[in-house]
C-alpha cells in the first residue's frame, strides 16, 4: 500500500484528492491547521473524514512540516496548502509570500533532508500567466504575475523546477486553470454566484453584488482536475503540465447561465460594486491542455454549462434541505453576507 501526504486536505482540492487516493487504495495522511473551530466539513460532506490520518501542521512552521513528513512516511506528497484567494493576497501580501511561496521551500527542504525518493506535486496555477499573453496559454507561455498570490506561486513554481534539476527529486508543477465544484470556497466568484442564486430562488436573499463582470476564466470541474495530479506522479519522468478545459467564459456568462438554471433573469438581481474590483485583475485565461491529453491521457468531460448546472443544483438542494430542518456538514449557513466584510474604510 502506498502512503500519500496531502497538505491542505481541508480545502476543495485536498478533499477530492483524498477521496480519489482512498479509492485507489492509498493510505492517506493530511495536514490541517489548528483553528478555534473545526474545519473538516468537506471531508465529512464527501464521507471520508473517518478514513484519513490527520496531522496538525502550518506552512509557516518548518518543524511541523518535517514532523508531517516523518509521521506519514509518504511515497507521494501533494502540496496543496496555500492562501488561495487572490483578492485577499492584496490585503495580506506578506503572509501570502510566507505561506504560499516560502511554504514550498520548507516542504521541499523536508523532502531533501528525509528522502529524495518522495515524489512531489506542486499546486501551480494559471494565475502565473497574468496579463499580456494572448490565449490559449500553454507550458511555454511566459509568466507575468499580477498579484501577491501569483508572485508567491511563481517562486513555488521555480523552486519545484530547481529541486528537480539540482537534487533529482521527482517534482512536478500542475499548472491548473480555475476549477470549481459544490465544495468550492464561498469567496470565489462561481460559488458566490451559485449560492446566491439558490438563496434568491428560495426567497432568502434578493440581490448579489459582484465586481469585474468582464474577466474571463477557463473553468473546469475540480474532481476531474485532482485526477491529473495523481497522473503526473505516475509518469516515468517528472514534468510540468497545463490542466484546463480549453474554453473561456466571462463572469457575466457565468452569472447569466447560473440565474437561468434557476429560471431567473440575472440582470434583475446582480449589482456591480467597486468593492469587489481588484487593484489588478487577470483579464483572460484560456488554457491549452494538449500536452496533458497527449502524455497523461487526461481530458475533461465536464464543460462550462454542466459545471454551472452542477453547482446551482447542489446549492439549491442544500438550502432546501436546510429549510426543511435537516442538519448536515456545510459552509453556507455560517458565512456572513459579504456586504459586512470590509477590505476598505466604509464609503472609500
Ligand atoms: P482552498 O480550498 O482554499 O484550500 C487551501 C488549503 O490550504 C486549505 O486546506 C487551507 O486550510 C490550507 N492552508 C491555508 N493556509 C495554510 C497554512 N498557513 N498552513 C497550512 N495549511 C494552510 O484551495 P483549493 O481550491 O483547494 O486549491 C488547492 C491548491 O491549488 C492551492 O494551492 C491553490 O492556490 C491551488 N490552485 C487552485 C486552483 C483552483 O481553481 N481551485 C487553480 C490553480 C491552483 P484551511 O481549511 O484551514 O483554510
Ligand atoms: N471572488 C470574486 N468575487 N471574484 C469576482 C467577483 C466577486 O464578487 N466579481 C468578479 N470577480 C472576478 C475576479 O475579479 C476575477 O477576475 C474572477 O472573477 C475570478 O475570481 P475568483 O473566483 O476569486 O478566482 P481567481 O481566478 O482570482 O483565482 C482562482 O483561480 C486561480 C487559477 O487561475 C483561485 O482558485 C486561485 O487559487 C487559482 O490559482
Share of residues in strands:
5-15%
Mean pLDDT reading: 96
Estimate percent helicity. Answer: 25-40%
Total strands: 13
For the biggest β-sheet, the strand order reads: 3-2-1-4-5-6-11
Ligand catalogue: NADP nicotinamide-adenine-dinucleotide phosphate, guanosine-5'-diphosphate-alpha-D-mannose
Secondary-structure element series = EHEHEHEHHEHEEHEEEHEEHEHH
Low-confidence stretches: none
| Structural class label | alpha/beta
What is the end-to-end distance?
Answer: 57 Å
Q: Radius of gyration from the CA trace?
A: 20 Å
| CATH-defined architecture of the largest domain | 3-Layer(aba) Sandwich
Number of domains: 2
How would you describe this structure to a colleague?
The chain has a seven-stranded parallel beta sheet, with helices on both faces. The longest helix has 22 residues, at 93-114. The termini are far apart. It is built from eleven helices and 13 strands. With 348 residues, the chain is an alpha/beta fold. Guanosine-5'-diphosphate-alpha-D-mannose (GDD) binds next to helix 4 and helix 7.
